[in-house]
Amino acid sequence: MSVITRFPPSPTGFMHIGNARTALFNYLYARKRGGQFLIRIEDTDRERYSEEAVEVILDGLSWLGLEYDNTPESQFANKDRHIAVAHELLEQGKAYKCYCTAEELDEMRAEAKEQGRPVAYDGTWRDKEDEDAPDLPYVVRIKSPETGTARIEDKVQGVVEIENDHIDDFVLLRSDGTPTYMLAVVVDDHDMEVSHVIRGDDHLNNTFRQNVIYDAMGWDQPEYAHLPLIHGPDGKKFSKRHGAVGVEEFQKLGYLPEALCNYLLRLGWAHGDEEIIDRARALEIFDFTGIQKSPANFDYDKLESLNCHYMQIADDGRLVDLTIPFFDFDIDEDAKVRLEKAMPELKERNKTLVGLAEEAKFLVSDITDYSEKAQKQLNKTSKPVLTALKEKLQDLDDFEANTIETCARTLADEVTDGKLGKVMMPFRAALTGTDKSPSLFMASEILGRDEVVHRIQKAVEFIQ
Predict the structure, then answer these.
(1) I want to staple 53 with a disulfide (CB 3.0 to 4.6 A). Which of 11, 40, 80, 328 is the partner?
(2) What pLDDT, in 10s, does the model give residues 57-98?
(3) 46: DSSP letter
(4) Alpha-carbon distance 317 to 347, whole Å?
(5) β-bridge mates for residue 41, sequence order
(6) How does pLDDT run across 95-136, given as a tens digit for each residue?
(7) Annotated catalytic residue within 240, 293, 373, 436
(8) Is residue 128 classed as helix, strand or coil in its secondary structure?
(9) Burial class (CB in 10 A: 0-12, 13-18, 19+), 91
(10) Which residues are 40's β-sheet partners?
Protein backbone atom coordinates (compact mmCIF):
# COMPACT_ATOMS: atom_id res chain seq x y z
CA MET A 1 0.00 0.00 0.00
CA SER A 2 1.20 3.49 -0.85
CA VAL A 3 1.12 5.46 2.39
CA ILE A 4 -0.59 8.85 2.24
CA THR A 5 -1.35 10.81 5.41
CA ARG A 6 -2.96 14.21 5.82
CA PHE A 7 -3.09 17.06 8.28
CA PRO A 8 -6.38 18.99 8.00
CA PRO A 9 -6.39 22.03 10.33
CA SER A 10 -9.26 24.50 10.62
CA PRO A 11 -8.04 28.07 9.92
CA THR A 12 -9.91 29.78 12.73
CA GLY A 13 -7.12 30.70 15.14
CA PHE A 14 -3.64 29.72 16.28
CA MET A 15 -2.04 26.33 15.63
CA HIS A 16 -2.65 24.37 18.84
CA ILE A 17 0.23 22.33 20.18
CA GLY A 18 -1.96 19.21 19.99
CA ASN A 19 -2.46 19.83 16.27
CA ALA A 20 1.29 20.22 15.89
CA ARG A 21 1.87 16.80 17.44
CA THR A 22 -0.77 15.28 15.14
CA ALA A 23 0.98 16.86 12.14
CA LEU A 24 4.34 15.52 13.36
CA PHE A 25 3.04 11.96 13.74
CA ASN A 26 1.43 12.09 10.27
CA TYR A 27 4.66 13.43 8.80
CA LEU A 28 6.89 10.83 10.44
CA TYR A 29 4.65 7.89 9.56
CA ALA A 30 4.49 8.87 5.89
CA ARG A 31 8.15 9.82 5.53
CA LYS A 32 9.45 6.63 7.16
CA ARG A 33 7.54 4.60 4.58
CA GLY A 34 8.40 6.69 1.57
CA GLY A 35 4.85 8.02 1.39
CA GLN A 36 3.24 11.43 1.11
CA PHE A 37 2.26 13.95 3.77
CA LEU A 38 -0.55 16.21 2.55
CA ILE A 39 -2.17 19.38 3.87
CA ARG A 40 -5.86 20.17 3.60
CA ILE A 41 -7.33 23.37 5.01
CA GLU A 42 -10.78 22.57 6.42
CA ASP A 43 -12.26 25.97 5.75
CA THR A 44 -15.96 25.26 5.32
CA ASP A 45 -16.85 27.48 8.29
CA ARG A 46 -16.64 30.71 6.29
CA GLU A 47 -17.81 32.93 9.15
CA ARG A 48 -14.78 31.97 11.23
CA TYR A 49 -12.38 31.54 8.30
CA SER A 50 -9.22 33.65 8.46
CA GLU A 51 -6.55 33.93 5.78
CA GLU A 52 -4.19 35.08 8.51
CA ALA A 53 -4.87 31.85 10.41
CA VAL A 54 -3.95 29.85 7.30
CA GLU A 55 -0.60 31.66 7.19
CA VAL A 56 -0.06 30.98 10.90
CA ILE A 57 -0.63 27.26 10.30
CA LEU A 58 1.67 27.08 7.30
CA ASP A 59 4.34 29.16 9.06
CA GLY A 60 4.11 26.82 12.05
CA LEU A 61 4.61 23.75 9.86
CA SER A 62 7.57 25.43 8.16
CA TRP A 63 9.14 26.39 11.50
CA LEU A 64 8.75 22.81 12.75
CA GLY A 65 10.37 21.50 9.57
CA LEU A 66 7.33 19.47 8.48
CA GLU A 67 7.53 19.72 4.70
CA TYR A 68 4.36 18.68 2.88
CA ASP A 69 3.98 17.23 -0.59
CA ASN A 70 1.13 19.22 -2.09
CA THR A 71 -0.24 22.69 -2.54
CA PRO A 72 -2.55 22.90 0.51
CA GLU A 73 -6.09 22.04 -0.59
CA SER A 74 -9.17 24.00 0.38
CA GLN A 75 -12.10 21.92 1.57
CA PHE A 76 -14.48 24.77 0.77
CA ALA A 77 -13.29 24.77 -2.84
CA ASN A 78 -14.37 21.11 -3.14
CA LYS A 79 -17.98 21.71 -2.05
CA ASP A 80 -19.46 20.89 -5.48
CA ARG A 81 -17.82 17.48 -5.33
CA HIS A 82 -19.21 16.90 -1.82
CA ILE A 83 -22.71 17.86 -2.97
CA ALA A 84 -22.42 15.53 -5.98
CA VAL A 85 -21.63 12.58 -3.71
CA ALA A 86 -24.66 13.34 -1.54
CA HIS A 87 -26.90 13.36 -4.61
CA GLU A 88 -25.35 10.11 -5.80
CA LEU A 89 -26.31 8.54 -2.48
CA LEU A 90 -29.83 9.94 -2.88
CA GLU A 91 -30.14 8.39 -6.33
CA GLN A 92 -28.96 5.02 -5.00
CA GLY A 93 -31.51 5.10 -2.19
CA LYS A 94 -28.74 5.21 0.43
CA ALA A 95 -29.73 8.69 1.58
CA TYR A 96 -33.02 10.52 1.81
CA LYS A 97 -34.61 13.94 2.19
CA CYS A 98 -35.77 14.89 5.67
CA TYR A 99 -38.37 17.65 6.05
CA CYS A 100 -38.51 17.80 9.84
CA THR A 101 -38.72 21.32 11.17
CA ALA A 102 -36.50 22.65 13.95
CA GLU A 103 -39.47 22.47 16.34
CA GLU A 104 -40.11 18.82 15.46
CA LEU A 105 -36.48 17.96 16.04
CA ASP A 106 -36.52 19.71 19.43
CA GLU A 107 -39.63 17.70 20.43
CA MET A 108 -37.92 14.52 19.24
CA ARG A 109 -34.87 15.19 21.43
CA ALA A 110 -36.94 16.13 24.46
CA GLU A 111 -38.98 12.92 24.18
CA ALA A 112 -35.82 10.81 23.85
CA LYS A 113 -34.36 12.41 26.98
CA GLU A 114 -37.57 11.82 28.89
CA GLN A 115 -37.59 8.14 27.92
CA GLY A 116 -33.88 7.69 28.60
CA ARG A 117 -33.07 6.94 24.96
CA PRO A 118 -30.10 8.30 22.99
CA VAL A 119 -30.81 11.81 21.74
CA ALA A 120 -30.79 11.12 18.01
CA TYR A 121 -32.93 11.54 14.93
CA ASP A 122 -35.63 8.85 14.87
CA GLY A 123 -35.80 8.26 11.11
CA THR A 124 -39.18 9.91 10.57
CA TRP A 125 -38.59 10.48 6.84
CA ARG A 126 -36.35 7.46 6.23
CA ASP A 127 -38.86 5.32 4.34
CA LYS A 128 -41.38 7.87 3.07
CA GLU A 129 -42.08 8.32 -0.62
CA ASP A 130 -41.35 11.51 -2.56
CA GLU A 131 -45.03 12.20 -3.06
CA ASP A 132 -45.36 12.58 0.72
CA ALA A 133 -42.87 15.45 0.70
CA PRO A 134 -44.22 18.84 1.81
CA ASP A 135 -43.20 22.09 0.15
CA LEU A 136 -40.59 22.81 2.81
CA PRO A 137 -36.79 23.07 3.03
CA TYR A 138 -35.11 19.73 3.63
CA VAL A 139 -31.81 18.23 4.66
CA VAL A 140 -30.25 15.12 3.16
CA ARG A 141 -29.59 12.32 5.64
CA ILE A 142 -27.70 9.07 5.12
CA LYS A 143 -29.35 5.73 5.83
CA SER A 144 -27.21 4.31 8.61
CA PRO A 145 -27.35 0.55 9.32
CA GLU A 146 -30.07 -0.21 11.87
CA THR A 147 -28.76 -3.57 13.07
CA GLY A 148 -25.47 -5.26 13.70
CA THR A 149 -22.16 -4.01 15.09
CA ALA A 150 -19.73 -1.42 13.75
CA ARG A 151 -16.06 -2.28 14.27
CA ILE A 152 -12.83 -0.32 14.00
CA GLU A 153 -9.41 -1.94 14.27
CA ASP A 154 -7.53 1.13 15.42
CA LYS A 155 -3.73 1.19 15.36
CA VAL A 156 -3.63 2.82 18.79
CA GLN A 157 -6.92 2.11 20.55
CA GLY A 158 -7.17 -1.51 19.40
CA VAL A 159 -10.53 -3.01 18.44
CA VAL A 160 -13.42 -0.65 19.16
CA GLU A 161 -17.04 -1.65 18.58
CA ILE A 162 -20.45 -0.03 18.91
CA GLU A 163 -23.93 -1.19 18.01
CA ASN A 164 -25.16 0.29 14.74
CA ASP A 165 -28.38 1.48 16.33
CA HIS A 166 -26.23 4.04 18.17
CA ILE A 167 -25.42 5.71 14.84
CA ASP A 168 -28.31 7.93 13.72
CA ASP A 169 -29.15 9.01 10.20
CA PHE A 170 -26.88 12.03 10.30
CA VAL A 171 -27.06 14.99 7.92
CA LEU A 172 -25.02 15.11 4.71
CA LEU A 173 -26.44 18.30 3.21
CA ARG A 174 -27.94 21.13 5.23
CA SER A 175 -31.24 22.79 4.31
CA ASP A 176 -29.34 25.47 2.37
CA GLY A 177 -27.67 22.76 0.27
CA THR A 178 -24.22 23.07 1.81
CA PRO A 179 -22.31 19.89 2.76
CA THR A 180 -21.55 19.02 6.39
CA TYR A 181 -18.07 18.37 7.73
CA MET A 182 -18.90 14.68 8.14
CA LEU A 183 -19.50 14.30 4.41
CA ALA A 184 -16.74 16.64 3.24
CA VAL A 185 -13.96 14.98 5.22
CA VAL A 186 -14.78 11.52 3.85
CA VAL A 187 -15.01 12.68 0.24
CA ASP A 188 -11.77 14.63 0.50
CA ASP A 189 -9.88 11.79 2.18
CA HIS A 190 -11.09 9.39 -0.51
CA ASP A 191 -10.24 11.74 -3.38
CA MET A 192 -6.81 12.47 -1.91
CA GLU A 193 -6.27 8.69 -1.60
CA VAL A 194 -5.48 8.99 2.10
CA SER A 195 -4.39 5.59 3.38
CA HIS A 196 -3.98 6.40 7.09
CA VAL A 197 -6.07 8.82 9.14
CA ILE A 198 -4.00 9.80 12.19
CA ARG A 199 -5.83 12.19 14.52
CA GLY A 200 -6.89 12.85 18.11
CA ASP A 201 -9.06 10.30 19.86
CA ASP A 202 -11.76 12.95 20.28
CA HIS A 203 -12.61 12.05 16.66
CA LEU A 204 -13.13 8.35 17.41
CA ASN A 205 -16.93 8.62 17.52
CA ASN A 206 -16.89 10.49 14.19
CA THR A 207 -15.06 7.57 12.63
CA PHE A 208 -18.03 5.24 13.00
CA ARG A 209 -20.23 7.76 11.21
CA GLN A 210 -17.69 8.44 8.49
CA ASN A 211 -17.35 4.73 7.80
CA VAL A 212 -21.08 4.63 7.02
CA ILE A 213 -20.35 6.97 4.10
CA TYR A 214 -17.35 4.93 2.96
CA ASP A 215 -19.46 1.77 2.95
CA ALA A 216 -22.42 3.42 1.23
CA MET A 217 -20.16 4.64 -1.57
CA GLY A 218 -18.34 1.32 -1.82
CA TRP A 219 -15.03 2.96 -1.00
CA ASP A 220 -12.19 1.34 0.95
CA GLN A 221 -11.87 2.64 4.49
CA PRO A 222 -8.48 4.07 5.51
CA GLU A 223 -6.47 2.71 8.40
CA TYR A 224 -7.10 4.64 11.61
CA ALA A 225 -4.84 5.71 14.47
CA HIS A 226 -6.52 7.82 17.15
CA LEU A 227 -3.99 9.58 19.36
CA PRO A 228 -4.41 10.36 23.08
CA LEU A 229 -5.09 13.99 23.85
CA ILE A 230 -2.63 16.36 25.50
CA HIS A 231 -3.56 17.62 28.96
CA GLY A 232 -2.04 20.43 30.98
CA PRO A 233 0.39 19.83 33.85
CA ASP A 234 -2.62 19.56 36.17
CA GLY A 235 -4.13 16.71 34.13
CA LYS A 236 -6.96 18.87 32.81
CA LYS A 237 -7.68 20.01 29.27
CA PHE A 238 -4.73 21.96 27.92
CA SER A 239 -5.71 25.62 27.67
CA LYS A 240 -4.47 29.21 27.98
CA ARG A 241 -4.43 28.97 31.77
CA HIS A 242 -1.43 26.64 31.46
CA GLY A 243 0.58 29.22 29.52
CA ALA A 244 1.57 28.78 25.88
CA VAL A 245 -0.68 26.47 23.87
CA GLY A 246 0.06 27.52 20.29
CA VAL A 247 3.16 26.75 18.23
CA GLU A 248 3.71 30.45 17.55
CA GLU A 249 3.79 31.13 21.30
CA PHE A 250 6.49 28.54 21.91
CA GLN A 251 8.51 30.10 19.12
CA LYS A 252 8.13 33.53 20.75
CA LEU A 253 9.23 32.06 24.09
CA GLY A 254 12.56 31.15 22.51
CA TYR A 255 12.30 27.39 22.08
CA LEU A 256 14.09 25.70 19.20
CA PRO A 257 11.88 23.81 16.73
CA GLU A 258 13.93 20.62 17.11
CA ALA A 259 13.45 20.72 20.88
CA LEU A 260 9.69 21.18 20.57
CA CYS A 261 9.46 18.38 17.98
CA ASN A 262 11.48 16.05 20.20
CA TYR A 263 9.23 16.87 23.15
CA LEU A 264 6.01 16.42 21.17
CA LEU A 265 7.27 13.10 19.84
CA ARG A 266 7.78 11.82 23.38
CA LEU A 267 4.45 13.23 24.55
CA GLY A 268 2.34 10.08 24.45
CA TRP A 269 4.88 7.96 22.53
CA ALA A 270 7.99 6.10 23.64
CA HIS A 271 10.79 3.98 22.25
CA GLY A 272 12.41 2.26 25.20
CA ASP A 273 14.15 4.78 27.44
CA GLU A 274 15.25 7.11 24.65
CA GLU A 275 14.64 10.78 25.48
CA ILE A 276 16.86 12.62 23.00
CA ILE A 277 15.44 11.75 19.57
CA ASP A 278 16.37 14.01 16.69
CA ARG A 279 14.57 14.05 13.34
CA ALA A 280 16.82 11.45 11.71
CA ARG A 281 16.36 9.03 14.59
CA ALA A 282 12.62 9.68 14.72
CA LEU A 283 12.29 8.81 11.02
CA GLU A 284 14.14 5.60 11.74
CA ILE A 285 12.10 4.34 14.70
CA PHE A 286 8.64 5.95 14.71
CA ASP A 287 5.70 3.57 14.62
CA PHE A 288 2.24 3.23 16.13
CA THR A 289 3.36 0.57 18.59
CA GLY A 290 4.93 3.14 20.91
CA ILE A 291 1.81 5.29 21.25
CA GLN A 292 0.03 5.05 24.58
CA LYS A 293 -3.76 5.12 24.95
CA SER A 294 -4.06 7.46 27.91
CA PRO A 295 -3.72 11.27 27.72
CA ALA A 296 -0.27 12.80 28.15
CA ASN A 297 0.39 15.71 30.51
CA PHE A 298 2.43 18.62 29.19
CA ASP A 299 5.56 19.28 31.27
CA TYR A 300 7.25 22.63 30.66
CA ASP A 301 10.31 21.61 32.71
CA LYS A 302 10.98 18.65 30.42
CA LEU A 303 10.59 20.84 27.35
CA GLU A 304 13.01 23.36 28.83
CA SER A 305 15.52 20.60 29.57
CA LEU A 306 15.35 19.39 25.98
CA ASN A 307 15.73 22.93 24.74
CA CYS A 308 18.91 23.32 26.80
CA HIS A 309 20.31 20.22 25.13
CA TYR A 310 19.52 21.35 21.61
CA MET A 311 20.85 24.86 22.24
CA GLN A 312 24.14 23.43 23.47
CA ILE A 313 24.66 21.34 20.33
CA ALA A 314 23.34 23.94 17.88
CA ASP A 315 25.64 25.65 15.40
CA ASP A 316 26.76 29.02 16.80
CA GLY A 317 26.07 30.91 13.57
CA ARG A 318 22.55 29.50 13.39
CA LEU A 319 21.92 30.49 17.00
CA VAL A 320 23.01 34.04 16.19
CA ASP A 321 20.43 34.19 13.40
CA LEU A 322 17.74 32.73 15.67
CA THR A 323 18.58 35.12 18.52
CA ILE A 324 18.58 38.38 16.53
CA PRO A 325 14.75 38.63 16.33
CA PHE A 326 14.60 38.64 20.14
CA PHE A 327 16.41 41.98 20.35
CA ASP A 328 14.10 45.00 20.25
CA PHE A 329 16.61 46.94 18.15
CA ASP A 330 18.66 46.42 14.99
CA ILE A 331 22.23 45.18 15.30
CA ASP A 332 25.06 45.68 12.82
CA GLU A 333 27.53 43.17 11.41
CA ASP A 334 30.16 43.93 14.07
CA ALA A 335 27.59 43.16 16.78
CA LYS A 336 26.77 39.86 15.08
CA VAL A 337 30.46 38.95 15.11
CA ARG A 338 30.69 39.72 18.84
CA LEU A 339 27.56 37.67 19.51
CA GLU A 340 28.92 34.65 17.67
CA LYS A 341 32.21 34.82 19.54
CA ALA A 342 30.34 34.75 22.84
CA MET A 343 27.86 32.08 21.76
CA PRO A 344 29.77 29.00 23.03
CA GLU A 345 29.42 30.28 26.59
CA LEU A 346 26.04 31.97 26.20
CA LYS A 347 24.31 28.83 24.97
CA GLU A 348 25.66 26.82 27.89
CA ARG A 349 24.20 29.32 30.37
CA ASN A 350 20.68 29.78 29.01
CA LYS A 351 17.55 27.68 28.62
CA THR A 352 15.83 29.62 25.82
CA LEU A 353 16.67 32.13 23.12
CA VAL A 354 14.81 34.77 25.13
CA GLY A 355 17.19 34.32 28.06
CA LEU A 356 20.18 34.18 25.74
CA ALA A 357 19.20 37.44 24.04
CA GLU A 358 18.67 39.17 27.36
CA GLU A 359 22.08 38.12 28.67
CA ALA A 360 23.80 39.00 25.38
CA LYS A 361 22.23 42.43 25.09
CA PHE A 362 25.29 44.21 26.53
CA LEU A 363 27.47 42.68 23.80
CA VAL A 364 25.46 44.09 20.91
CA SER A 365 24.29 47.48 22.20
CA ASP A 366 25.41 50.40 24.33
CA ILE A 367 24.61 50.50 28.04
CA THR A 368 21.78 52.99 28.42
CA ASP A 369 20.87 52.28 32.03
CA TYR A 370 21.82 50.15 35.01
CA SER A 371 19.62 47.63 36.79
CA GLU A 372 18.74 48.21 40.42
CA LYS A 373 21.24 45.58 41.56
CA ALA A 374 23.92 47.00 39.27
CA GLN A 375 23.39 50.47 40.69
CA LYS A 376 24.11 49.16 44.17
CA GLN A 377 27.59 48.19 42.96
CA LEU A 378 28.26 51.62 41.49
CA ASN A 379 28.96 53.71 44.61
CA LYS A 380 31.61 55.88 46.24
CA THR A 381 33.48 52.78 47.44
CA SER A 382 33.70 51.24 43.99
CA LYS A 383 34.57 54.48 42.20
CA PRO A 384 38.33 54.38 42.96
CA VAL A 385 38.39 50.67 42.12
CA LEU A 386 36.84 51.29 38.72
CA THR A 387 39.14 54.25 38.08
CA ALA A 388 42.19 52.14 38.86
CA LEU A 389 40.89 49.26 36.76
CA LYS A 390 40.39 51.58 33.80
CA GLU A 391 43.98 52.83 34.06
CA LYS A 392 45.39 49.30 34.22
CA LEU A 393 43.32 48.07 31.27
CA GLN A 394 44.42 51.05 29.18
CA ASP A 395 48.03 50.05 29.65
CA LEU A 396 47.66 46.35 28.74
CA ASP A 397 49.83 45.29 25.82
CA ASP A 398 47.59 42.32 24.91
CA PHE A 399 43.88 42.84 25.53
CA GLU A 400 42.98 39.18 25.91
CA ALA A 401 40.87 37.29 28.47
CA ASN A 402 43.85 35.88 30.40
CA THR A 403 45.72 39.18 30.65
CA ILE A 404 42.51 41.00 31.65
CA GLU A 405 41.97 38.43 34.41
CA THR A 406 45.56 38.86 35.62
CA CYS A 407 45.03 42.60 35.66
CA ALA A 408 41.85 42.30 37.76
CA ARG A 409 43.47 39.93 40.24
CA THR A 410 46.49 42.18 40.61
CA LEU A 411 44.22 45.14 41.31
CA ALA A 412 42.32 43.11 43.91
CA ASP A 413 45.59 42.35 45.70
CA GLU A 414 46.56 46.03 45.60
CA VAL A 415 43.34 47.77 46.69
CA THR A 416 40.85 45.24 48.14
CA ASP A 417 43.05 42.90 50.20
CA GLY A 418 42.82 40.22 47.53
CA LYS A 419 39.02 40.21 47.47
CA LEU A 420 38.41 39.73 43.76
CA GLY A 421 34.64 40.15 44.15
CA LYS A 422 35.09 43.79 45.12
CA VAL A 423 36.67 44.36 41.73
CA MET A 424 34.49 42.06 39.66
CA MET A 425 31.08 43.13 40.92
CA PRO A 426 31.40 46.82 40.01
CA PHE A 427 33.29 45.81 36.86
CA ARG A 428 30.31 43.63 35.83
CA ALA A 429 27.86 46.42 36.59
CA ALA A 430 29.88 48.88 34.51
CA LEU A 431 30.37 46.52 31.57
CA THR A 432 26.89 44.93 31.37
CA GLY A 433 24.51 47.21 33.25
CA THR A 434 23.35 44.15 35.23
CA ASP A 435 24.55 41.85 37.99
CA LYS A 436 24.73 38.70 35.80
CA SER A 437 26.73 37.89 32.72
CA PRO A 438 28.95 35.32 31.05
CA SER A 439 32.67 35.49 31.79
CA LEU A 440 33.66 39.15 32.06
CA PHE A 441 37.17 38.42 30.85
CA MET A 442 35.88 36.73 27.71
CA ALA A 443 33.30 39.50 27.21
CA SER A 444 35.95 42.19 27.65
CA GLU A 445 38.14 40.64 25.01
CA ILE A 446 35.19 40.46 22.61
CA LEU A 447 34.16 44.08 23.24
CA GLY A 448 37.71 45.36 22.86
CA ARG A 449 39.84 47.78 24.89
CA ASP A 450 38.23 51.02 23.72
CA GLU A 451 34.67 49.92 24.46
CA VAL A 452 35.55 48.45 27.86
CA VAL A 453 37.41 51.60 28.94
CA HIS A 454 34.52 53.71 27.64
CA ARG A 455 31.97 51.77 29.69
CA ILE A 456 34.03 51.93 32.86
CA GLN A 457 34.42 55.70 32.44
CA LYS A 458 30.67 55.97 31.86
CA ALA A 459 30.03 54.11 35.13
CA VAL A 460 32.41 56.39 37.01
CA GLU A 461 30.52 59.38 35.67
CA PHE A 462 27.25 57.76 36.75
CA ILE A 463 28.59 57.51 40.32
CA GLN A 464 29.59 61.15 40.25
Answers:
(1) 11
(2) 999 999 999 999 999 999 999 999 999 999 999 999 999 999
(3) T
(4) 12
(5) 74
(6) 999 998 888 887 888 887 777 777 778 878 888 887 778 888
(7) 240
(8) coil
(9) exposed
(10) 73
